[in-house]
Amino acid sequence: MNNNIYCTIMAGGRGSRLWPLSQPSMPKQFLDLVGFGRTMLQITFDRFRPLCQPDHFIVVTNEEYADIVHQQLPEVPQSNILCEPLRRNTAVCIAFANTMIKQLDPEAINIVTPSDHLILNNDVFIDSVRTATEFATGRDVLVAIGIKAHRPETAFGYIQLGEPQDKYPQLFSVKTFTEKPNIEMARIFYECGEFCWNSGVFVWTQKAIETALTKYLPNVQNQFDQLNKLPMTSWTHDVVQHVYDECDNISIDYAVMERAQNVYIEQSDASWSDLGSWDAMYENAQRDDKGNAVTSGRAVLKESAGNLINVPNNKVCIVQGLKNYMVVDHSNVLLICPFDKRHASSSYAAEISAMD
C-alpha cells in the first residue's frame, strides 16, 4: 500500500432529487439505499480502503453533518472531517481538502470521490483507480476515471477519449467534456465508441491540482493559500467561514477539468451508477416482468406496471391498477405521484415544512 495515497470523500450534499427518502436532516449519502447493511458513505469508505489507511481519508461535509460522519466512520480521525460552513460546489470542496493534505503530506496523491455511487464490481473499478494513481505519481496531470458506456444515457456527463498512453491500455488523453446530452446526442456518443461516462472520481497529486486551481481559479486558491498559513488547529468556524464567503460557487468540471490541457482519463468497465435520483434507483433495481421495482419493503402488485415502490421494511404496500407511479413512504411523508412528475416531487418539501 502506497503511504502517499489519500482519499477525499465529498459528502456534503442534500440529495434533494431523492426526496422524500433523502431529506436535509439525513441526506442520501448517510442512508442504506441498496440494502447492503451499510450506508452509501460507508460503502464508499469500504471501496477505497484497499488503497489507503483510515487516517488518510478526508471527508468534506457540511458542518451540520459532522456528527453523522463521525458516527458512521469512526475509523476516520475526527480531525479529518472538514466542515464546510456554506455549500460552494466541488471546486471549493476539493481546494479545502487539498489544503489539508498539503499540510499532512505535500507529496500526496489524492483520490477524490463522491459519496453516493453504486459500483457492483469494486475490484474492476479499484484496478482502474490504482492504474490512475500509478500514472499520476510524479506527473503534473489530472486524471478522471471514466466508465465505459453501456447504453445511451442522458443522466451522465461524457468524456471524449483522445490518444492512448504507452503502457496504459485504458488510459487516454482527453478531447472534450460534455454535460448531460439529449437522447439524440447520447446515442451518437454511445454508437461512435469515443465517449465514456464521467464518474466524477479524480486522481492527481496535491501539487498538480494546486497548480491547476492557481491557474484556472486563482481567487479560490488564493483564499486557501491564506488558510494554509495557519495550522489546522486554528481552522475555526469563523476562519473557514471567511474563506468560503470569498469563494465562487463552481464545480471542478467547469472550473478546471474542461479548461486544463493536462487532463487524462482512465476508462473502467466497472458496473457503475450515480444513485442521485429516482431514475437511477429504478434503473439499478430488480424489476418484475411488468417492470415494477420494489427498492425497499414488500409489495403486492395487481394490474400494475412500471412502478417504483419504496416503503419501510416492516410494511407491505398493496398496489392495484397503477402504471408508471412512484410510491414512497418515508418518515412523515407518503408520496404517490406519476413517475414522469418525479422531478417536481421535491418541491413539496417546502409545503410539508410549512404544515409542521
Quick overview of this protein structure:
The protein has 356 residues and is an alpha/beta fold. It has helices spanning 40-48, 66-72, 89-104, 122-136, 183-192, 206-216, 218-228, 237-245, 252-257, 278-283, 348-355, and strands at 5-10, 57-62, 81-84, 109-114, 117-119, 142-148, 158-165, 168-178, 195-205, 263-268, 272-274, 293-296, 298-302, 308-310, 316-320, 325-330, 333-338.
Supply the key terms:
4-stranded mixed β-sheet, 5-stranded mixed beta barrel, 30% helix, alpha/beta, 356 residues
Q: What do these coordinates show?
A:
The chain is about 30% helix and about 30% strand. The strands form four sheets. It has a five-stranded mixed β-barrel. Strands 12-14-16-17 form a four-stranded mixed beta sheet, with no helix packed on it. It is of the alpha/beta class and about 350 residues long.
Rounded mean pLDDT is 92
| Bulk shape | globular
User: How many β strands by DSSP?
Assistant: 17
Computed structural class? alpha/beta
Provide the gyration radius in Å.
21 Å
Number of helices: 11
Q: Spans with pLDDT under 50 lasting ≥5 residues?
A: none
Helix content: 25-40%
Kindly report the spatial arrangement of strands forming the biggest sheet: 6-9-7-8-10
User: Which H/E pattern describes the elements?
Assistant: EHEHEHEEHEEEHEHHHHEEHEEEEEEH
Distance from first to last alpha carbon? 51 Å
Tell me about the biggest sheet?
A: 5 strands, mixed, barrel
